[in-house]
Specification:
Elements: H1 2-9, E1 16-20, H2 29-42, E2 47-51, H3 57-60, H4 65-73, H5 78-84, E3 93-94, E4 100-103, H6 112-117, H7 125-136, E5 141-145, H8 152-159, E6 163-169, H9 178-191, E7 196-203, H10 210-220, H11 236-243, H12 248-251, H13 256-275
Parallel strand pairs: 1-5, 1-6, 2-4, 2-5, 6-7
Antiparallel strand pairs: 3-4
Helix pairs in contact: 2-13
Length: 276
């Protein structure tokens, strides 16, 4: 692990950007994104979290609700940067999590799709605004939480990323719309050829239920799609952590889910290290 970090430190000009996306709501996307960020930060990596969803769940994973609402109502959030076309350096805020910073979201992100519709090169706006942050080499990783939609805004999030991670819930409807997301990813690759699918992570697993085995079997039918071996099981500690505005990796390190997210982060690092 230290070898990989040293390699990344030697390449500080290339910050690795990973987008967590699924057009199906309830997939555990925000939870996975936030906990992977916390796990990487605990390993000593410098991490920037970008909350691209109007629900602000990623922001709520690191900051108290009142503070998140204050950011959402102010001019210090992602929507303001998109609306004004301002680069993102000045929108970065610190969090109580060491080595981890955040660009908070806003409920006003609900109108970003409409605003992007009339802009030139609308799919690449975020790439331009985030470029100074990426080129600074301050961060090892930028992790992005995307909203559960497919459109101009999510295309922006994919086009600024190196990798896509898709959380899929182990449930009867967990794979609903996944084929559409794969098509969307391929469209994004035409604008961003380096965008690779890092893998699919299965979340909310209850191994006692048939749904999990059905989900795994269905996913394994997809050729050339990596399925992470680390599974994220159902764990009430996740909800308790969220209630305390923390990730479960921070809140209860000894819990099953915290250990699983740390293992998933290590699995991701192994793949990224081999691809670097």
């Amino acid at each position: 692990m230290r070898r990989l970090k040293n390699e990344l430190d030697g390449k500080r000009k290339h910050t690795i950007t990973i987008c967590f996306a699924n057009n199906k709501g309830g997939s555990g996307k925000s939870t996975t994104c936030s906990n992977i960020g916390a796990a990487l930060a605990q390993k000593g990596f410098r991490v920037l979290m970008l909350d691209g969803d109007m629900q602000c769940n990623l922001s709520l994973s690191f900051l108290e609700e009142d503070l998140v609402l204050d950011y959402a109502k102010s001019s210090n959030n992602l929507y303001d940067a998109i609306h004004k076309g301002k680069e993102l350096t000045s929108y970065i805020v610190s969090t109580p999590c060491e080595n981890l910073d955040l660009i908070p979201s806003s409920t006003q992100m609900s109108s970003v799709e409409y605003e992007l519709a009339g802009r030139q090169q609308r799919e690449l706006l975020l790439r331009k605004l985030l470029a100074p942050v990426k080129e600074s080499g301050i961060y090892d990783f930028i992790l992005i939480d995307a909203p559960p939609t497919l459109g101009f805004w999510v295309m922006n999030l994919l086009c600024v990323s190196d990798y896509l991670v898709i959380p899929v819930e182990a449930s009867p409807w967990g794979m609903f719309g996944l084929a559409n997301l794969f098509e969307f990813w391929q469209a994004a690759k035409e604008l961003t050829p380096q965008l690779d699918l890092l893998g699919i992570v299965i979340t909310k697993v209850d191994a006692r239920k048939l749904y999990f085995r059905q989900t795994l079997a269905s996913l394994e039918e997809w050729e050339d799609i990596h399925i992470f071996s680390t599974l994220i099981h159902v764990d009430s500690n996740v909800e308790w952590a969220q209630d305390n505005s923390k990730t479960v990796v921070q809140y209860r390190k000894a819990s099953r889910s915290a250990k699983e997210y740390v293992a998933l982060a290590e699995e991701m690092l192994g793949i990224v290290g081999n691809l670097s």
